[in-house]
Amino acid sequence: MRTREAGEVFGPRMTLFADVLSVGLATSVACLPLVTAPAALSTACAVLRGAGQDRPVTAGRYAVLLRQRLRAGDLLAGAVALGGLLLFAADLALAGAGLPGAPLFAVTAAVIGACAAVVGLRACARPESLTDWRTAVRGAARDAVADVGGSGLVLLAVATAALCAWMLLPLAFLAPGPLTLALTAVDVRRSAAVSPQ
How many other C-beta atoms lie within 10 A of the C-beta of residue 106? Predict the structure, then answer.
């Protein structure tokens, strides 16, 4: 990181934090149609990954990249994610209705849902998600198993974003920024660990 210039009020870390929040707000807006959520998160991760390569991290760059992304494969990924979320909600509703074996079913559904969320979010953070979702999901599944610590960090990031949104509803619109920053950091950490020295 560069040092603070003379007369500069905020340092580079504060600038990156502001950029993360602006990308998070743009991601929230892009996620509103729901089927665009995977493409929106993937694009945010790509924009934030660019910070390490001296590319601008701005909502404008995010919007330009997102416009190039909304193709049939991205919308299909969003439909699959939305369908999985609806199925998970229906399973939990059935477990809450008092079916026999409901507590065990609810725990099993929660574990499966958490694993699916980790793989899906790690897939959004992978660079392959920009062009090929299948490759990204396969790589994310391998990473989720091989890097259990990173998967735990992803779950912790999701829990933190959900808690912030629950405590103060307007934070829900900013939460995707720090969440995508965490997803990108976990992916970069994993890539650095497996790349040859």
Answer: 16
